Amino acid sequence: MCFILTVLFVIATYVFYTKALMLQAIGSGVIASIALFFLIRKLITNGRCIFGKDKDC
């Protein structure tokens, strides 16, 4: 879910930026950064389960 949100907000940031809507681009970029932070945090904390090293999660 975090990955999907991150990708969608990055796309929205790019679209806003190309249409010269800077305030919306900045807002969308901030939300994308927060979503990316949570994605990386989840990968670090649950990485052993996600990548198959632990079987009992």
Radius of gyration: 15 Å
User: Which structural class matches the secondary elements?
Assistant: mainly alpha
Order of helices and strands: HH
Oligomeric grouping of the chains: single chain
Summarize the main sheet: none
| Number of continuous helical runs | 2
3D architecture notes:
This protein has 57 residues and is mainly α. The protein contains two helices and no strands. The protein has helices at residues 2-18, 22-50. Helix 1 (2-18) runs antiparallel to helix 2. The two termini are 19 Å apart.
Give a quick precis of the structure.
The protein has 57 residues and is mainly alpha-helical.
Map the helices and strands:
Elements: H1 2-18, H2 22-50
Give a quick set of tags describing it.
single chain; 57 residues; mainly alpha; 81% helix
